[in-house]
Design brief:
about 1100 residues; mainly beta; five-stranded antiparallel beta sheet; 6 helices; Sortilin related VPS10 domain containing receptor 3b; PKD_dom; WD40/YVTN_repeat-like_dom_sf; transmembrane
Length: about 1100
């Protein structure tokens, strides 16, 4: 499925430090269920674990200077100022969330909680606030309510003075809102449980809330009032508008699950006006669940049909287009890695990959992808999410690191040209002790761990910073492959061209002073009391003590873009101590602010080549060792000069592949002389040379423009290779839906080539050239059927055509099996399945007879069947329409001989006829009053109420029943004071005499002859006919529905049944009686 990377803004951890190795892109503010503790939302909010027990350590102490220098160092020497504060009384709390307001604010908020893992709920909480950068804290429980249990802390990313807190829903459902950095709170009750919040990227008061019952709510006043946006919303698949792309800033993009289905819909609406009439369904058709991604200029979806996934993209909110990967990539899975710089990086699992993915890079619209690097190392996070070993280096355009599996070995590669070429990392010449390593490429190299830390309290295994381009610090090892043992810390100061080892253990490393200094803290499970700081890019490290007592460090918090030079350490002294918050002011490391003479320049290069991404760039950095503070706004780039273009400033265009000599050649499956769509609107077109310029590359081409597309005059050709499909490759659609047809021509397009599309329902449309069909051709079908859709391309040099068979269906509401109650043995009986609403040969009928192991399958709703044994035979018909299957069953009594009469009833019966099968069965049983093996009565649907009497071979029973009917003696009581009399509809129908009856006398012989002829006529009518109303054929056989395909059933000799109009039940009865009357007339005339 399509996945985007999502980053939390606030996090909470237990006391021990941990890091979830996953990079995410957007802030949802939801708890991460894959960890034991929840995650929280907020830019700088972190959580550290609480410690049980009490501590004898005083609440606050202050210490200055390095451990080795005593307590009063000279101010000219580098020193740290530290102070410690203990959160007294919260020793039992085992979770904490910390927020630094930032923007040079001195306010820090800490929420500590006691989370009961047995109950799965928060049972206690405390809120602490500091106004002096963490030197002291005040407890705010009285301000929020002494009995209020707080479960979550959120901070508005666009105005960090605004705080939103959630109370535990087990106690009360409410939000607490502060607009003054937690100095005061207002409580507002809510009627739903919030699982996650999503803040608007620009409007500070606009918030989306996702509830436990899959509902999405919106608030335009920072949580005071909430309004339902939509139900059945997929978790994490909701997005605010992107400014500059969506017309209205309050637009919400939502993926909603279709009820009881495995598919979803992409819905776009306004946050406060998302009623059905105001919703937009921008993607025609359904999408796979958990596939909607809205990121920057792009919207991605996925559709799986017949086991193969197709991926679609909308660029700049235009129509969706199918993403094109190389023809035989055949993707099994795709994950969006990045959409930076108006380009898509995607990890694609190809058909022959199991544990690896390949890196593909797109053009600007995100449609045409080319391969950059095969067999990327991947893993799965705690929640099953895909983790890709791919890292973008901050501050250097086009520079990336990736871990690739080569011969079952994981190796780290680097690119300086956005994935056109990749190379192994050179290892340091010496280790941290100065010993020679003798690691020679390509047999030995440096390998780095590239996972991004999800815990914002730790730096993660690799870090770089935009304000210090060229410096990368990472955890890794030297050898033939990446290892998880013998790890050390490595640094580069020249953008990866050379590396140095700085530690032989794993450390968390942060940039201080806008990148001018480095802070290192040992990544250990044991308590520590020292940290390391370097002012010369890791060449020299000074050790400083930050605590008198060793501290279990759970995290480090700092404001990255601030001039206050404050760090806060979170942790505990022992497993029974209280929370300890250590404030460190490192301003004493510097003696002054940097001046012009404190900087030096350095050249960005790639193994000596100064042209990187099409330009020569000179950067500025502080001279190593200078103890001056960097200004936030000093320019890092000193100068930039474009270079002349080379082949590696271009990537191979779609359908082209890089060869060993560096040139791009067409892939075997790609025809470079195919269609150029621009030919449809002009006399020339830009023909690809096989190259496309790398996005954000600034090289200048020579006068000949060797690599750029060339303008070529259009050469008219006969159309060849015309393709017709629906927009999503489906061959079926529902009645009344908008079907979008896509037309593609491989060869021969010219301004004179016209396109004609015959929709198969009598409507045709013609376009003067192919470019007018780029967005597809939409059409609505009003009737069910299978339509032959024909596309034709034609010019004065020739033509080409192609055909698509489209099934237009509608949902089946119910099915009724019309079958005789009694049938003759070894004689064909007609069965009909009546479907509401009517369909024109778009259904499949499965007929099950008696104990048959296989059904008879037809495309028509009627069939003739011969029963071979007497007795009761059950017949079941199943009607399949897409994934919907309905059925109806009837029990047919089969006899060798039987008689039948038509019956009618007193008019009062019609007033109490609900016209349902169960009522008709009960009335028939009352009328017969005798065992079913002798006599059966079957009532017909509709009004007036009529029935057919079946008399099984018993001459005496026949005479008795006919006499009783003629005399009106057959009656029954429907209810109190309502008696119903049963009549014969036509007395001339009775008695029907079996041909085996024996009578004497010439008169009787004459009667027998006449009756025998009548019986024969009636039996022919009764058992060789189809139900009269089924024979609805056009009298003029030339007046057929235009272009509806005449599908033939299993039995080609069977009459074709046209169900374009289905008669009402009253009409059914009238036609049945009319047919009966015709049979009576035939019998009478014979008499």
């Amino acid at each position: 499925s399509l996945c985007e990377y999502v980053s939390t803004a606030v996090t909470e951890t237990p006391k021990r430090t941990f890091s979830v190795k996953e990079k995410k892109k957007r802030s949802v503010g939801a708890p991460y269920k894959e960890t034991v503790d929840k995650s929280v939302n907020g830019e700088a909010q972190r959580s550290t674990g609480a410690v049980q027990g009490a501590s004898n350590f005083r609440s606050e102490y202050r210490r200055t200077g390095e451990e080795s220098r005593g307590s009063n160092p000279r101010q000219s020497e580098p020193h740290l100022e530290t102070s410690t504060f203990a959160l007294s009384g919260d020793s039992a709390h085992n979770q904490a969330m910390v927020h630094w307001s930032g923007q040079n604010s001195s306010v820090i908020l800490i929420l500590t909680k006691l989370y009961d893992f047995n109950l799965g709920a928060v049972t206690e909480s405390s809120l602490w606030r500091s106004t002096d950068y963490g030197s002291t804290y005040n407890k705010l429980n009285d301000k929020v309510g002494s009995r209020t249990v707080l479960s979550y802390l959120y901070v508005c990313p666009t105005n960090k003075q605004k705080i939103l807190m959630l109370s535990d829903p087990e106690v009360e459902s409410a939000v607490l809102i502060s607009s003054d950095e937690g100095a005061s709170f207002e409580k507002y009750p809510i009627n739903f449980n919030i699982l996650s919040l999503l803040f608007h990227p620009a409007q500070e008061n606009w918030v989306l809330a996702y509830s436990h019952d899959y509902k999405l709510y919106s608030s335009m006043d920072f949580g005071k009032k909430w309004q339902l946006v939509h139900e059945n919303v997929m978790p994490g698949r909701f997005y605010w508008a992107v400014m500059g792309l969506d017309r209205e800033s309050d637009v919400v993009h939502i993926e909603t699950r279709i009820a009881k289905g495995r598919e979803s819909q992409y819905v776009k609406c306004r946050a406060q006006r998302c009623t059905e009439g105001n919703r937009q369904y921008l993607f025609p058709g359904h999408i796979d669940t958990n596939s909607l991604v809205v990121q920057d200029e792009y919207v991605f979806t996925q559709v799986t049909k017949s086991g193969r996934a197709s991926y679609f993209v909308s660029y700049m909110r235009e129509s969706f287009r199918q993403m094109k990967l190389p023809k035989y990539c055949l993707p099994k899975d795709m994950h969006i890695i990045s959409t930076d710089e108006k380009q898509v990086f995607a990890a694609v699992q190809e058909w022959n990959q199991n544990n690896t993915y390949s890196l593909y890079i797109s053009d600007s619209p995100g449609v045409y992808f080319i391969l950059s690097l095969e067999n990327l190392r991947t893993s799965r996070g705690p929640a099953g999410n895909l983790l890709v070993d791919f890292y973008k280096v901050e501050g250097i355009n086009g520079m990336y690191l990736a871990n690739k599996i080569v011969d079952n070995h994981i190796k780290t590669f680097i690119t300086y040209n956005k994935g056109q070429t990749w190379a192994l990392l050179p290892a340091p010449a010496t280790d941290v002790a100065g010993n020679n390593l003798h690691c020679i490429l390509p047999f030995c190299s440096l390998h780095l761990h590239l996972e991004m830390s999800e815990n914002p309290y730790t730096s993660g295994p690799i870090t770089s910073k935009k304000s210090v381009p060229g410096i990368i610090v990472a955890t890794g090892n030297i050898g033939t492959e990446l290892s998880s043992t013998n790890l050390g810390m490595f640094i580069t100061s020249d953008a990866g061209n050379s590396w140095r080892q700085i530690f032989d253990e794993e450390y968390n490393i942060w940039f201080l002073d806008n990148g001018g200094a480095l802070l290192a803290v040992l990544h250990a499970s044991t308590p520590i009391r020292q940290l390391w700081i370097s002012l010369d890019e890791g060449k020299k490290w000074d050790r400083h003590s930050f605590s008198l007592v060793p501290l279990y460090v759970d995290g480090v918090l700092m404001e990255p873009e601030s001039d206050n030079h404050i760090i806060t350490f979170f942790g505990h002294f022992s497993h029974r101590s209280e929370w300890q918050l250590i404030k460190i002011d490192y301003k004493g490391l510097f003696s002054r602010r940097c001046m012009d003479g404190d900087y030096q320049t350095w050249y960005l290069h790639n193994k000596g080549e100064l042209c990187v991404m099409g330009e020569k760039q000179i950067y500025m950095k502080r001279r190593p060792g200078n103890r001056c503070m960097l200004a936030q706004d000093y320019s890092r780039i000193y100068s930039s000069e474009p270079c002349l273009c080379t082949a590696y400033d271009f990537e191979c265009d779609y359908g082209w592949e890089r060869q060993a000599d560096g040139k791009c050649s067409p892939a075997f499956w790609y025809n470079p002389n195919g269609v150029a769509k621009s030919c449809s609107s002009s006399q020339s077109f830009l023909n690809s040379t096989g190259y496309r310029k790398v996005l954000s590359n600034n090289c200048k081409e020579r006068g000949r423009n060797v690599y750029s597309p060339k303008r070529v005059a259009c050469q008219p050709k006969a159309p060849q290779g015309l393709h017709l499909s629906t927009s999503h490759g489906e061959l079926s659609a529902t009645v009344g839906s908008n079907v979008t047809f896509m037309i593609h021509l491989d060869n021969g397009e010219s301004p004179s080539t016209s396109i004609q599309l015959d929709f198969g329902d009598g409507i045709k449309i013609t376009y003067s050239n192919l470019s007018r069909t780029d967005d597809g051709i939409k059409h609505i079908y009003r009737m069910t059927g299978i339509y032959r859709v024909i596309a034709t391309a034609e010019n004065n040099l020739g033509s080409d055509s192609t055909t698509l068979f489209l099934h237009i269906t509608s949902p089946v509401d119910r099915v009724y099996l019309s079958a005789p109650v009694v049938a003759s043995k070894e004689k064909a009986a007609n069965l009909t399945a009546v479907v509401w609403p009517s369909h024109t040969r778009t259904l499949t009928f499965f007929w099950w007879f008696e104990n048959s192991s296989e059904p008879i399958i037809t495309l028509e709703g009627s069939i003739s069947h011969m029963f071979l044994r007497e007795g009761k035979n059950k017949v079941t018909v199943q009607v399949a329409c897409g994934s919907t299957v309905l059925e109806d069953s009837k029990v047919i009594t089969v006899k060798e001989f039987f008689r039948s009469l038509l019956l009618s009833f007193s008019p009062a019966l019609d007033e109490h006829n609900p016209d349902i099968p169960e009522w008709r069965e009960d009335i028939g049983r009352v009328v017969s009053g005798v065992p079913e093996n002798q006599l059966m009565v079957s009532l017909y649907p509709g009004l007036p109420t009529t029935a057919e009497l079946f008399i099984l071979p018993d001459e005496q029973m026949l005479n008795i029943f006919v006499t009783a009917l003629n005399q009106g003696l057959i009656q029954f009581e429907l209810k109190a004071n309502i008696r119903i009399i049963v009549y014969m509809t036509q007395q001339t129908l009775a008695p029907l005499v079996d041909s085996n009856s024996i009578h004497s006398g010439s008169a009787m012989l004459m009667l027998i002859s006449v009756v025998f002829v009548g019986i024969a006529a009636f039996f022919i009518y009764k058992f060789k006919r189809k139900i009269p109303w089924i024979h609805v054929e056009t009298e003029d056989r030339h007046e057929k529905d235009p272009e509806v395909i005449s599908t033939v059933g299993q039995n080609d000799a069977m009459s074709k049944v046209k169900l374009s109009e289905f008669p009402s039940q009253k009409e059914l009865m009238e036609k049945e009686l009319e047919g009966r009357s015709r049979a009576v007339s035939t019998f009478s005339s014979l008499c």
